[in-house]
Every structure is written in C-alpha cells, then in structure tokens.
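cron nightly-structures :: item 1 of 1
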Amino acid sequence: MSEHTPQDGEDIDGFFSTARTAGREEAIELPAAGYTKYLFDHDDPQIAQFRGMTYEQFATDRYLSADFLRDLLSFWDELLDEPFVGITSDGVVREGLYSLPDDPATDDAAAVAAAEKVLALLTPQQREKFAHSLGDNEFRAWSNPEFVFHRVGLRLEDLGGESSDAFLALVQASLSAEGYERVREAMALNGFLGELVDLPTIMNDRSYFAALYGTPAVGGAWGWQLFGHHVAVNFVSVAGRHVAAPVFIGAEPAISDGVRPPIFEARERLAIELASSLSADQRAKAVVYESVLDPAMPEGRLHPADERHVAGAFRDNRVVPYEGIRAGELDQRQRMLLRAIAEDFLLIQDAQRALTMAEFDAHLDETWFSWYGATDGTQPTYLRIQSPVFLAELDHHAGVWLTNRLPARFHVHSTFRLPNGNDYGRRYIAEWESRSR
C-alpha cells in the first residue's frame, strides 16, 4: 500500500511538490522502512495514466500538461543558448589550470576501433543523426530526466540490438571496468524502476540517447555522449588524454531487492566517516546547513527539480561560490578520506584517473568540502567537493516515481564537473587545436 498522501497546495505538477523546497525547523529523519513502502499503488492515477505510452507520447503529455515543466525547459534552453564559459566560483574563468600531458600513457586504439564499428553498422541516415562536429553545441544538450527533451543522436532502444550493443562496447572501451559497471548499474536500475511502476516503454535499461562527436582517430580529438534518466556521460579523447565530464549518475531507487548494494554505498560510507570525524571547530565550518531543508537557506538555493545539486544539466556556466571548510584545515586522515571520496567520483575514468587525481592533488590547498545535514548518517545529506579543477556533489532527493515527499537515501543524484572551462574537454581541445595549426 502506498504512503502517497498529498496535502492541499503541496503539488506543483504531480511529480514535484513544494515539500522538497520548503524549509522546516524539525530534523528530516531517514525513513525507517525501505523504498518499497513508498511505491505507488499499481492503479494510482498518478502513474497509471501513462501506462502503455511510448517515451515520445509521455514527453508530449508531460509538456502539454505541466506548466512547471514547460517553464523549466524554457529556462534550460536559455542556458543552452549562452556561449560556453564553464563553471566558476566567482564568475571569472581562471586560466592556466589544464595542460595536455606530453604522454598520457594510454593507447586509445581500442576505443577508436569500437567507435568505427558503431559507424559501420549505421545507415547513412542514422550516421547523420549520430555524428556531430566536436564543437557542436548539441554536446551541451544532455539532460537526466525520464522525459525526452533534446533528441541528440540515436536512442539505444530504437536501434537494432547489434548497433546498440556496439555503442555500449564503445562505452566499455572508453571507461574503466569499474566505471562501465557503474554506468550499466545505473541503467539497470532505471530498468528496474520501469518494472516497479510498470512503465517499461518509458523507463528501461536502454532508454538513452547516444551520439558521437568529431572523427575517431588515435591521437586525435573526438568524443561520445550517453544520456537519459539518471545517466549522462560526456567523454572526450584529446591527443590520447581522456576526459569524462560532465557526468551525472543517479538512481531511484538506488538499490534493487537483493541483487546489488546501493549504487554509491562505498562513497556514502566514506563521506559519513569523514563528516563524523570532524571536530566541533571543523564542523562549524564544514556543515553549511544543519539539514537538507534548513530554513536558513537563501531564496533560490533549493530547486524543485535539482533540489540541492548545482552542477546538473544545462549548468555549464553556473557560478558556484566555495563553501564549507578548506582541505588544509583537515588532519592527514581526514584529507585521505576526502581524497578517497574524490577518487570514487572518478571511478568512471580509465587508467588516466591518476592524471585527474594529480590535478586534484595540485590544488588540494584550494579544495573545499561542504556538508548539509547531520554528520552521523541519521539524516539525508548533501555533500560537495570543489576546487579550481574539481567539482563533485552527491544529493539525496525526494521521490518522483516513489511517493516520499522528503529526501531519502534511496533516491540519489551525483554530478561531476571540471570547472573553469574544461567540461567536454574544452580546454584540452583548445590546446590541441593550437598545437595542430
């Protein structure tokens, strides 16, 4: 039986409610029961109305019936129309932060071969939709909701099995084994959600768009993109240097019954260990807000769709001021924990993860750690690690396809960015192009 009990004035459009943005003085405790307590009844009109729809029919229905959604998509398009700058802490892009290594020590021949195989399997009409120039603004048009917004590239579920499998083989050849498993796990959880709510034509493990950018070549500059519900990965290879950013990975629910642990279990365990180790003085700085719905938050800090995360879809140029505590004010063990959390955000990367961590280490004294909520694991939380070359965050959300109106650990969003203009490998591409002239 569902726990869905909406109150007057609480709904924004059925999926989103004012409860997720309303400050409250009382602590927000984690649900004692698991996510199954918050499943909609099968015939609840909130979800039953969409049963049998294709993803395109669902997108049309949502767009026509939801003022909130139309306003959000209009705002997103305005952001997309802005020239790319990059996320900054103060509105000023800092120069000289990224440099292509002389030898990235990675042979990307396997990824190039995988990309060429995908192209060989597509018809000319499919290739026209699938392949874009490296500087195409469509690279920035990814989004993570389950409704279709920008249709960039080809949708995996609409491709034949061989072509769809070939693209996933490209993803596998480009990422670490653990990173590929995490991406596929999030996709599988999306399929699991589709089964839970009986909407498999809207949410399944291949309801994702795929696109290629540039011409795959060893030592060249090219990339690919995969995006859809709770998964968005933007990969670029520049002179052999691999970049995966922006990355968005999430899940609702973040666990499937008895099959696998929560998707970010290790990361959250490390985060709680770090947060709970803070001294009173450290805590006073690191804990920016006492809860994820702290009424002290300024107007606009909470968004009905993004909730607390700041680096999601279409936020390529956002100004995100530093907050929390500097890494230099943490002791050695705490800095090791911070580094381990940061490295888990980079699990998706291949052997070049060490290169990105070297950039992280080089700016450790300029790295900030911020936390919202209790530090003992008894409440939903938000965390962010941010430096001139690194922005990563994890946020617990209220339900969309589950009925919990307040944030819970079984709906999680995670983002990763390369601030100051290196999302989509833009800084590396600019350097490569200057070298090639």
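cron nightly-structures :: done
Residues 177-196 form the longest helix (20 residues).
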